[in-house]
Design a protein that fits this description.
Chain lengths: 330, 330
């Protein structure tokens, strides 16, 4: 039978593991279904492991990004998953698939990018594997740690919680659009949009301050897009949400780009993936964006967790939204 | 520049990581260069992580193995890496790449095999990722643990140590040959050779007994082939070896197969990869194969660690051997 959708397939796999696999030991606090698996190391320390596969033409294109940037982004995507649990990434394990005739310089460029991102986040490449393949494949498994009282899962959002997001949204999607247009003069005018797509930086540097200030009830990183990832939180927490469109944080550059193209910035903000911003819920209240860290990252309140349904508030009107999200098999 | 060889490339990557990466923290006991990375969890407990990528047409072929067997073998290969450090595999993270039109049943068959092998070794699938790809890709990252005083690395073989191997050797290569010949009548006559290729079982079940009885100084699992893997031990330990050809353990079925084809069994024993037997060095002496575990696995002495050079003793003659081994990029 054909694969109908990624989510159906994941459901089938989960069922199979639950039915035929060994019973989950007490040590394994979180298995499939969050940004990372979580397991007990000692009384107060937890281990985190996440894995992500990046494949040429699906996840990256060499006509859009250089290999160093491709490596950088692959590592940052995993660092972001560890940060989304409240943790710190420690050791990375890199499997590469390389097509015949692939230049050694390109392999080393991928590694330069991996190392650069790892260095920023305090992460060391501690192992890996290499094979020939039909296309460039980068799989990263990342090990991290978090203190038990700092762990934040997806599944604990409470009705009435505020919804917050770090940084601003939408730039990655706009950056990709510009790059694909291959118009040099436009590329030059929107350097920050391009940079956000090519070299996004995960929010590992403000994670401790964020946890101290907000005591998040749930958290996820934005890799699929705000709507998709917020749905992950709500599905895991059995809640709904309402988002205030006018609160969505977007950069001046994105506003300028949208006004030029006569497009709505909120379309970008709601759907842009690979942003690697942190999306979280908390019962804290802030009146205006709070600025965290020496990088001066804003944290903005964008909506509220409700008991059910997914809604966007636009000009005081409640619009019901259906979320599709990217699906590899649709 | 073209990639000249896997080993040269790995050397370049290691140099780059050492030069540009963060300094190795004290906690990271073993990084790239053994079956697993090793890091401190608490005073007496160590964490182990290994990762392996399996790619269709390079590592497996669907005309030779069913998808359940392909999943089984991929998991066992990783379990074997953990066993080779003296450890126990706990949590597995599976990334799949699936070509367009790949049937859902085949994905679930891969998972059935992964689960079956995991169950045998006490391992749980705790996370993963799925993407579309041009070919079937299975990447497994496996987390395990070992007590500090049970850890066995590659790098500590001592001159004068005896060299031992579990089980018997050569069957996987012969099994693949038979399967590729596609002659049904031959397939039926050599079920154990076929099984060893299709569904090899790593030696996790006897690892504790083996460590207690032999106190190995170094250990590796045979994934590349006896000669290649023994060279890994010797390169890491700065030693040489001499192997006694007549001591190499081979099954009666392999002897029968070789006599039929008028081939030398030792060619198979020396070069067959994916055996997942344990190869180790120890100062213990045994007169005849020792039998371990309820599966009655023999452990056979096959040679000695020397100060340098790689030699095979055949009919009392010392033959110098050069080892090439499989290289993805040659």
């Amino acid at each position: 039978m054909q694969i109908k959708s990624e989510w159906e397939l994941l459901g089938n796999i989960k069922n199979l593991i639950n039915k035929e696999g060994l019973p989950k030991p007490k040590d394994l606090i979180q298995s499939i279904g969050d940004d990372c698996a979580v397991f007990t190391l000692s009384g107060s320390r937890l281990g985190l492991i996440t894995t992500d596969i990046s494949i040429e033409s699906i996840h990256f294109r060499r006509d859009v990004s250089g290999f160093e940037d491709i490596g950088f982004k692959a590592m940052m995507g995993n660092v972001s998953d560890i940060a989304a649990m409240g943790g710190k990434a420690k050791y990375a394990f890199v499997s590469l698939g390389l097509p015949a005739g692939f230049a050694k310089e390109n392999v080393l460029a991928i590694y330069k990018g991996l190392i650069k991102a790892g260095n920023m986040a305090g992460t060391i490449i501690a192992g890996g594997d290499i094979s020939k393949a039909k296309e460039v494949i980068i799989n990263i498994a990342l090990y991290g740690e978090v203190k038990k009282n700092k762990l934040i899962k997806r599944s604990n959002a409470k009705i009435g919680n505020n919804i917050f997001v770090t940084g601003n949204l939408g730039s990655s999607m706009a950056g990709l659009e510009i790059l694909l247009s291959k118009k040099r003069n436009i590329t030059k005018q929107f350097p920050a949009l391009i940079k956000k797509h090519i070299m996004p930086i995960a929010r590992y540097s403000i994670i401790e301050e964020l946890i101290d200030k907000f005591e998040p009830t749930s958290m996820i990183d934005i890799s699929d897009g705000l709507l998709s990832d917020l749905r992950h939180i709500c599905d895991s927490s059995a809640t709904g949400f309402k988002l205030n469109e006018e609160c969505l944080p977007v950069s001046k550059e994105l506003l300028r780009y949208c006004s030029r193209l006569k497009k709505s910035p909120s379309g970008y903000a709601l759907n842009s993936g690979e942003e690697y911003e942190l999306l979280f819920t908390s019962d804290k209240i802030i009146k205006r964006p709070l600025i965290l860290g020496k990088e001066q990252i804003p944290v903005t309140r964008i909506g509220k967790i409700t008991n059910k349904g997914f809604y966007l508030i636009r000009d005081n009107t409640k619009i019901k939204i259906s979320i599709t999200g990217f699906d590899h098999f649709k």
